[in-house]
Amino acid sequence: MMRFISRSGKERSDVAAGQGTSQGTIPPNGAVHYDSVVSIDSKAAPGVRFAIHRISFGRRMELSRRVREISRKAEFLEASTELHEKIEANILAQEIDAMYLQWGLVKIDGLIIDGEAATAAQLLEKGPEDLAREVVGAIKAQFGLSEAERKN
User: Fold this and answer.
1) CB 123 within 8 A of CB 115
2) pLDDT value at position 16?
3) pTM for the predicted model, two decimal places
């Protein structure tokens, strides 16, 4: 019997029981089917559906490497008492969020920006900010960040 540890730390045996998991299902032949992309209906923009990458070991490493240096600098600047350094820390935090969005957004359905189907770049540059923040939050949730970590 296969047992898996969930993020909550509880042991799960869904797969062994043939019940599937939130990330895959067990067909009759016993093979696990896993979708590496998850689609989400937007709450910020009704009628819009976006797809993001699910986290994998390799993708977690890739994003962690991209974000590592900027995060360190942002944390250092945030600890400062100088206003201009706090502003710089805020800018870096927004750059990190943009990195998450570009890294994790696969597609957007139901959104046209200036006459063209929306892309990650267009959403960042010209799209509705609340939708962009919703997408970033969903990506961070896939990444397994806590609510406090997501705010940064």
Assistant:
1) no
2) 40
3) 0.69
